[in-house]
Amino acid sequence: MAIDSALAPASPSAVDAEREPGEDSPQARMAAAKEASRETARLTSSDKVRALEAIAAAIEADAAEIIAANSRDLDRGRSQGIGDALLDRLRLDEKRVATLASAVRDVAVLPDPVGQVVGGHRMPNGVALEQVRVPFGVVGVIYEARPNVTVDIAALALRSGNAVVLRGGSAAKESNTVLVRIMREALDGIGISPEAIQSVDDFGRDGAKALMHGRGFIDVLVPRGSASLIETVVTESTVPVIETGAGNVHIVLDESAPEDWAREIVVNAKVQRPSVCNAVETVLVLRPAAERLVPSVVDALQQSGVTVHGDDVVSGLASSVVPATEEDWATEYLSLDIAMKVVDSLDEALAHIRTYSTGHTESIITTDSRNAERFLAEVDSAVVMANASTRFTDGSEFGFGAEVGISTQKLHTRGPMGLSELTSTKWLARGAGQTRA
Amino acid sequence: MAIDSALAPASPSAVDAEREPGEDSPQARMAAAKEASRETARLTSSDKVRALEAIAAAIEADAAEIIAANSRDLDRGRSQGIGDALLDRLRLDEKRVATLASAVRDVAVLPDPVGQVVGGHRMPNGVALEQVRVPFGVVGVIYEARPNVTVDIAALALRSGNAVVLRGGSAAKESNTVLVRIMREALDGIGISPEAIQSVDDFGRDGAKALMHGRGFIDVLVPRGSASLIETVVTESTVPVIETGAGNVHIVLDESAPEDWAREIVVNAKVQRPSVCNAVETVLVLRPAAERLVPSVVDALQQSGVTVHGDDVVSGLASSVVPATEEDWATEYLSLDIAMKVVDSLDEALAHIRTYSTGHTESIITTDSRNAERFLAEVDSAVVMANASTRFTDGSEFGFGAEVGISTQKLHTRGPMGLSELTSTKWLARGAGQTRA
C-alpha cells in the first residue's frame, strides 16, 4: 500500500556503473557520509547534545518553511489520489513540527552508548582486553512517506555517533528536502560536518538501490515501513540489514484465561492503536474456553468498532462474525479487523503460530503456570508474553527512551531497538610486547 | 584459490522452483533441520553434553572408516592436481581423527549459553521483562575442503542448541558424507533427532544456493574460507550472514617503537602461522624510525624465511627486498611474504589502513601513549592493538574456549566468535492482566 514505486526492480546498471569522481551521485553522497562518520564517531557526548539542540532549534525556527514544503507534498498527494490515512501520516502542522523538535531534544538527553565498556579481562600473558561500544559508522534508512522519520532517525543516528544516509518515500520529497537542509545547516552552524546527514531522495530508484548495494559505505541498513518494503530491502541488499517491523501478532486464550483479562487485553491490543505492528491480528481460543470466552470477547471487540473474522465455531457462538478464510490467518490488518479461531489444544495454537507468525510478539492469557511457561519457552518470537497486552512491545515502554524500530530478525538485536542497538563494538588490546607462543 | 566451483553464479531457477513435498531436496533437508531445531532448542545442557559425548565416541569408533573415505578424497584430489597445501588441509589421519573427537569433548565442557539471562527489569506497571539467550534455530555454514570444520561447527551449533545445515567443499565430499552419517547415527542412538545435522553437499551448486536463499529455514549463514567465497556468500545471500575472516592485517611501527618489540612482534605475527587470517600482511614504518628499524626488522624477517615486498625507501635501507606494487598493499598473502612501506606520519598510516584494511586486526608498536590511544580510537577494525602480536585475535586466546570464526562485520558480533555468538535473545514478559494506557 505505502510501497514506493522507487523500490520496484530496475536495472542495476545505472547504480553499479562507475561514475566520474566529483560527480554528484548516490555513491558520492554515501562516500561523503563515510568520511564524515569518522568525525561523528569521535564527537564527545556534549558535542552530540549540542548538535541535537541546534537541530531542534532550527526546526522550530524554520517551522513555516517546513509546513509550506509539506503543503506542496500534500497537494501533490491529493492530486495523485493518495488515501486519507497516508495523507495523515505525511502531514506536518505547527503542532507536529513542535513535536519533531521536542523528539530531538528527548534523544539528546538519552545516555550516550558510545565508549561504554561492555566486557574485558586480562589475558594470562598480561595483555589487557576491553570490548567497547563504537558507532556503526554509516546507518542507511529506507522508509516511506513519513517526514517525522527523517528527523527521528537522523537524531538517533547522530546521538549514537553515526552518520546517516536517508531515503524517504517520494510522496514526502519536498518536506524531506527542507528538513535535511535545515539539519545540515544546523550542524554546519556549530562546526560539525553537515555531510554526516545525507539524503538520496532526489536520485529516486537509484538512490534506494545504491543504499542496498552500498558495500564499503553503508555499515547497516534499516528498512522502516510495510512488509513488502522490508521484503524488498532484505532480499535485494548486499549490505547488512536489520529487518524490522511486520507483526502478525497472536493472542492465545487458554482454558484458564480469566474473562476480564481476556476482554481487556484483546481489546487493548487491537483497539488502542490498530495501525501499528504490535497490535494483535489473530486471537486463538482453546476449545474448552470457547463457549465461555468467545461471545464475551467478540462483544467487547464489536462494541469498540472491530470487525471479527471468525472460523465456523466462532460464527456459531457470536453474531455479526465475518467468515474467515485462509488469507485472514496470514493478514496483518493494521485496522479495526481481527481474526479469531478456536483450536483444540495448546499444541494446535503453537503450530498455528509457527505457521503464520512473523516472529514479532505473541501473548497467552492464562492462570495455568505450566501453559504460560510452555508458551514462553516454545514460541519463537522477539517478545513472548503471558497476561499482558502485545502493545507493550515498544522501545519507550521497555524503558529505552526512544525506538529505532522493532527487530524481527535474530541477528544483532531482537525486539525493540534503542540507541545501543545502533552501535557495534570493537576490541582493544593493550600489551607490552607480547607475542604468541 | 580454494574457491569451490559450486559457488560460481548459476541460474537460481533450479533452487527457487517449488518442489513436490516429500521429494529429497536441499529445501526438504533445511525444513527437516528447522523442525529438529525446535527439539534442539529445548534440550537441557546435560542432554547436549550427552549428544556431544556420543558423537566423539562414534568418531573414535569409526576412525578407520573416516580415514578410508578421506583417502578416496585425497586420491581424487591428487588426480585432479590439487596442491599440497590444500591436500594437507583435507587430510585426516589417525592423529587428526583423534583430535576431531577431543575437539568435540572440548566443546561439550563449555558453559551452555542458552537460557542465560542477559537483562531484565520490571516495567512501571509491574510487567516483568526478562531478556534471555536462545538458539538461533538453524545455522547454515558454507566452507571449503576442510573436514574438521564439518565436525567443529556441528559440535558448536549443537552445544548452543542449534540445528545445522552444512555445505562443505566438494573435494572433501567422501569424508564429509561419512562424518555427517556418523554424527547423525550418534544422535539417533541416544534418542535425539538426527535431522538436527544436515548436509547439502550432494546437491552441489544447488545446495549452496539453497542455503543462501533459505529464508524461513536458515536463521544465520556463516561462510568460512577464502575472501572470494565470503564475498560470494555475502553478495548473493538473502538470509542474514555473519561475514568472517579475511584479514589484510597491519602493524604500524611508530617513531618510538622499541626495536626488540618491533622485531619480535612483526616476526611472530608473520611467521608463527602465516596461513591464517590474523597473520600480519603489511608493516607501516614511520619515517623518523625507518633508518633505525627497517634494516633490523627486515633482517629478522628474512632470517625466518620471509620475502619482504618493500617500497623504494625500504629497498634503500635493506637488501634482497622485492619492489612492492600497488597490489601488494591490498594482498592477504597468507604465506611467508610481507609488504613494508615507510609513511610520513601517523595520519598517513591511518589513511593507508582505511584504504586497504579488511577491518580484522591492526596493531601499533609504540611507547608514546598519545599515539597508542589515537590508534586504538581511530582504527575501525574488529580488534585494535597496541604493543601485541596480531596473532592474539583468536577465540581461544580471548578465553572463549572455542571459535566459530572471526567476524569482520559490525552487525551482531565483531571479532572472535564464541558459543554465545551462536545465540540470539528473546524477551519474556510476565504480566497480570496489564493493558497499555
Automatic annotation (TrEMBL), chains A, B:
PROSITE patterns: PROA (PS01223). Pfam families: Aldedh. It is an enzyme of class 1 (oxidoreductase). It is found in: Cytoplasm. InterPro entries: Ald_DH/histidinol_DH, Ald_DH_C, Ald_DH_N, Aldehyde_DH_dom, G-glutamylP_reductase_CS, Glu-5-SA_DH, GPR_dom. It comes from the Bacteria. GO terms for biological process: L-proline biosynthetic process. One of its GO terms (molecular function) is NADP binding. It catalyses: L-glutamate 5-semialdehyde + phosphate + NADP(+) = L-glutamyl 5-phosphate + NADPH + H(+). PANTHER family: DELTA-1-PYRROLINE-5-CARBOXYLATE SYNTHASE (PTHR11063:SF8), GLUTAMATE SEMIALDEHYDE DEHYDROGENASE (PTHR11063). Belongs to the gamma-glutamyl phosphate reductase family. This is Gamma-glutamyl phosphate reductase. The lineage of its organism: Bacteria, Bacillati, Actinomycetota, Actinomycetes, Micrococcales.
